[in-house]
Structure formats: structure tokens, C-alpha cells
Amino acid sequence: MRKVHTVVVEWEVRDVSLLSSYMLERSVNGSSSDFQNFNMAGCVQNGNRFQCTDKDLFKGSSEETAATGSVSYRLRVTHPDGSLHTYFQTTVEYTTNAVRRTWGSIKSMFQ
User: How far apart are CA 79 and CA 19, in angstroms?
Assistant: First the structure.
């Protein structure tokens, strides 16, 4: 499986009029109960094609400068009749050197 820094999720629909709204959700621990709304600001629609870019992947708590992990995405669509459907769920492996720091870890670097 290919390792990536940025994840791009793309999909295409046959008939856009069958979509009332959509929501891409993300889970970083793989649990189906842990899916949360994705930042839709990274999503664009061009006709019947959709693309969402996720640049918010950070390494875990290891002390390494780069880390690998997996992230899952699922697409939930609301139809004009109000019914909600999950259309796909996929998992991808990624590698990143971005580090999420807490205020405590930043202060400890300067002590």
C-alpha cells in the first residue's frame, strides 16, 4: 500500500439531483463509532465529481520525527426524500512528519 502525506478522497455520482447533501466523515482509530465530520472546506464539486483533500494528518505520540498510521473515511449522503445512506467506507495508510504539539510539550523544549 502506498504511503502518503495528504489524502485525497474522490467520488463521482451519476445524477447530482439525487443528492440533497453529503458529509464525508473521518476516523483515525478505525472504530466505526469514532467517525467525525470532516472539514468540508477542503472539498470541491465540479459537476458530478467531488474531491476532498485532507491535510490534517498528524503523527501519534511516538518520539519519531515521522510516523505511519491509518485513517478511514466514509461518505454519508442525504437524498431529497430525507433518507440517509452510507455510500462507501475506505481506509488508507499514511506517513507524515508533521507533529502535533501540546502546550506542555512546547514549554518542555525550552526548559
Answer: 5
How far apart CA 84 and CA 91 sit, in angstroms, is 21
Domain that holds residue 34: 7-109
pLDDT tens digits, 74-102: 999 999 999 999 999 988 887 665 555 55
* Alpha carbon distance 76, 96 (integer Å): 27
* Total number of domains in the chain: 1
- Judge whether 36 lies within some domain: yes
In angstroms, rounded to a whole number, what is the distance separating the alpha carbons of residues 13 and 34?
26
Longest Cα–Cα distance of the chain, Å, equals 59
Is 2 domain-assigned?
Answer: no
Q: What's the pTM?
A: 0.70
